[in-house]
Amino acid sequence: MKKKSLFRLASLIGAGSFAAVVPASCNSLIRSVNHTETVPDDSNRSNNNQDGDQGGLSNQSETRNQLSGLLNKQANQVGMYNEYKQIQAGLKSAYEAAKAVVDNTNSTSEQLNEAKTALENAISQAERNKDSFNQNNAQLIGVYNQIKEQISGINESLDRAAYSGIRAKLRPIYQAAIIVLQNGLQTAGGSAVSLPYATKVSSDLSAALAKLPEW
């Protein structure tokens, strides 16, 4: 009975239309199979993330070591500016800021890199500032270096002097020269020390050294 019904349906709609029904159903099934979702494999992604984390830690450790290396040279670097009070103070502050970042175990790679760059820039800037100061105060530099040489001569004279009278005459001049050298070339405010006063001290030293044979 069903076969007759199908035959009659085919006769009504035509054989071509009926034949198209079956392929359409098959195509729907094929499309359904083809669109089956594939679960992505996250194992490679996880491994890549781990490698990235390890690389980041390695870079962070390297940067920390480099910054620590710069900090280890602080005494020598800062000591180069004992006669330049303002320049030295600025460099000390840069070292202190960098040390605070290194000592903080929670510092990130970015913070360590920034601290390293800032310290390197401060070191370079201090050198440039010193060169600029020397160029602008060439006469003061000359007098200052002369006082250093004269002090050496006074020291030898004080060691050789057998009489308290000679020592008494040399000591005030010597003390004035020592104060000039202790003050350095540059004040904490950034200005140069008094050239007239340094020149007077140098002249007094020269006169005292010249009179030693008479004393």
From TrEMBL:
<feature type="region of interest" description="Disordered">
    <location>
        <begin position="36"/>
        <end position="62"/>
    </location>
</feature>
<feature type="coiled-coil region">
    <location>
        <begin position="102"/>
        <end position="136"/>
    </location>
</feature>
<keyword id="KW-0732">Signal</keyword>
<feature type="signal peptide">
    <location>
        <begin position="1"/>
        <end position="19"/>
    </location>
</feature>
<protein>
    <submittedName>
        <fullName>Lipoprotein and hemagglutinin (VlhA) family protein</fullName>
    </submittedName>
</protein>
<keyword id="KW-0449">Lipoprotein</keyword>
<dbReference type="Pfam" id="PF07554">
    <property type="entry name" value="FIVAR"/>
</dbReference>
<feature type="compositionally biased region" description="Polar residues">
    <location>
        <begin position="45"/>
        <end position="62"/>
    </location>
</feature>
<keyword id="KW-0175">Coiled coil</keyword>
